[in-house]
Amino acid sequence: xxxxxxxxxxxxxxxxxxxxxxxxxxxxxxxxxxxxxxxxxxxxxxxxxxxxxxxxxxxxxxxxxxxxxxxxxxxxxxxxxxxxxxxxxxxxxxxxxxxxxxxxxxxxxxxxxxxxxxxxxxxxxxxxxxxxxxxxxx
Length: 138
Prior knowledge:
Elements: H1 16-29, E1 35-40, E2 45-50, H2 55-80, E3 89-93, E4 96-102, E5 107-112, H3 119-133
């Protein structure tokens, strides 16, 4: 059996500036992402990237705890309904959508959109961002 070893981008969590740069690049690459941040499952902001100055930092600071709670609630509902592991928790409001996506076993990715973006487009964009963050080097 021939297995290819895929090397992933090393995301150095000890360097928040490097992670923030990766997130900012992802946010700029995908027009449907208005803000993006990574939080720990216990509610601490790891890094944030933006497409508008200043707004995402406040959202990240306030949203990290809510994102951790949402991910936990999603996990509990998935187990309760015997649907396996939670893949995302999505919220739709009248001025945009927010999605919480597991990035690792200890981190979640939070992506927010503008009013014109549907839940489906937000989910697709977030999955592309996750793939970009986990893409092989080169």
